[in-house]
Write a structure and sequence with these properties.
The chain is α+β, with helices and mostly antiparallel strands and about 240 residues long. It has one domain. Helices cover about 25% and strands about 30% of the residues. The strands form two sheets. Strands 1, 4, 5, 6, 7, 8, 9, 10 and 11 form a nine-stranded antiparallel beta sheet that branches. Strands 2-3 form a two-stranded antiparallel sheet. The longest helix is centred in the N-terminal third of the chain and has 53 residues.
Length: about 240
């Protein structure tokens, strides 16, 4: 009886405790790993949805603006290829027949100067795409503006425009004034020259910050092609 009581009072050995702790650590690691993977997937999905929404809004806005280009007398379109902080960030400006009123104080409608420009974001090294919408008043300068406008999209790796002429030739820059020539005596002035088609490409970064090898990193690409409106035929 005395020997039996002595065996009952015996506790766990050190090896048994170590084995139990090891098993417990494996279980906790598995649970934490699954928990972390789940939230990584959730956050990744939310980020992709945010990029998708931002890209669709930007592409639709640019497309609508280009469809309102004044492609005739009084119209103008200038596109310039630019490198911003080592990546492509083009600029584009044109006369639009539809001014977008963004507030109750700004209810005027009519011709406007629409401009797009890319500027570096100091926080992460990526690009911000700005949209300028300015009512074109008599005597107002077309090109000068104190601010680049409102931010249309952020977190970009690239913002580019490509122009296609009537012969199908593509170019990275466009100046409608190149179609104008000094008229001879008794001749009507020639009208500005506009592209037939404009390709738009926006590349959003998948990460929140720019990386050194970002040029080789696959971003989320949004593309569209916009056919510019034809000028209305003059009445006889």
């Amino acid at each position: 009886m005395a020997g039996s009581d002595k065996r009952d009072e015996r506790g766990f050995t050190l090896i048994e405790l170590l084995i139990a702790m090891f098993i417990f650590a494996i279980v906790i690691s598995s649970v934490y790993g699954a928990y972390r993977a789940t939230f990584t997937i959730i956050h990744g999905s939310e980020a992709q949805m945010a990029i998708s929404r931002s890209g669709q809004v930007a592409i639709e806005r640019i497309s609508d603006d280009l469809r309102s280009v004044v492609a005739g007398p009084g119209g103008e379109l200038r596109g310039e290829r630019k490198d911003v902080s080592g990546v492509r960030g083009d600029s584009l400006a044109f006369i639009s027949a539809s001014h977008l009123a963004l507030s109750k104080k700004d209810m005027r409608a009519g011709y406007a100067v629409i401009g797009y420009s890319a500027e570096p974001d100091e926080k992460n090294g990526l690009l911000k795409l700005y949209r300028l919408d300015r009512v074109l008043m008599p005597g107002m300068e077309k090109e000068k503006s104190e601010t680049p406008g409102e931010v249309l999209a952020a977190g970009l790796q690239e913002a580019s425009f490509v122009y296609v002429d009537a012969d199908g030739k593509e170019t990275d820059e466009w100046d409608s004034d190149e179609g104008e020539e000094d008229p001879g005596e008794g001749e009507q002035p020639k009208e500005p020259l506009f592209p037939e088609l404009v390709y738009v490409k926006l590349v959003f970064s998948r990460s929140a910050e720019r990386k050194a090898d970002q040029a080789s990193e696959g971003g989320v690409v949004f593309r569209t092609a916009v056919a510019l409106p034809k000028k209305a035929k003059a009445r006889e």
